[in-house]
Amino acid sequence: MAQAKAKKQKPKSNSSSQRFEPGKVESLFVVLDAIAWLDGPSSGDIAQFAGIDPRTAGKLLKNARQISLVDLTGDSYTLVLPYPYKGSLDQKKAVVREALVRMPLLTSVRQFTGLGDALAVALRKAATVAGITPYIEGDLLPLVEWARSLQALEPRMIAEDLVEDAQAAKAERHRKGAERRVAFLSHSSKDKPFIRQLAADLTSNGVGVWLDEQRIRVGDSIPERIAQGLAESDYFMIAVSAASVESEWVKKELNSALVREIEKRRVSVLPLKLDDSHMPDSIRDKKYANFSESYKAGLTELLAALKDGKL
User: Fold this and answer.
1) Which residue in 16, 120, 125, 295 is a FRET match for 114, CA 20 to 30 A apart?
2) Is the pTM of this model over 0.85?
């Protein structure tokens, strides 16, 4: 009888993995800066780079993983979404906001509040839909606070709204005649040393940068994943090298459809030639900056072209 009774008991999931750690969302940005700059950092690397306590870093990384903002492979962290390194506070908040808006749990919360439920009721129902059992409200309240502070709980909010906000911000920047331009740097993780230097040099020359490593997860839609970063940017710079042309990102996703999507958002495609690798067919006709023989010469060519608007 005891065995039969035991078989009827429904196992409960471990709710501790669903616990969202309390803290201010602004504290997350030094962690994201570290992941964007470092190559496959561990939590210890991130804590040291960010200058924060390892325990605090661990809590922030746990939160970032739960909202699918970062991935963990082995003991190495990577960003899932493009990130505006040295960008404005509003730009960095927008990245976290996007991750929250896309989170299935919060999507359900918005649906239930849109149907008239109070937030506490909507959260309980959404947790049930997500299979979070037992439901412990206190474990999820810090998540709700992050979402509320970033206006990610509006019932009608969808990811497309964030892209429209980014496009509007770029249009306003152009309307004011600001000289500052923004570049989206797409690259293989193996080319990160080059990208670090380029990001530093572009920033020092008044060009803002979004960093995006070419990584594909199962079910990823590349145009969707990079949409907000593109909407903010004036240039889509792709580092073309032996490492990148062999990557699945370039093989499968850098096609004519994606190039059209980029150009539809009034973003110029600027290939960066790092070595003697052949340009992918979809960008073969684009003017490129040649870094293959000299980094200094390539940078001079790139900055001159950006200033003159010839690329």
Assistant:
1) 16
2) no
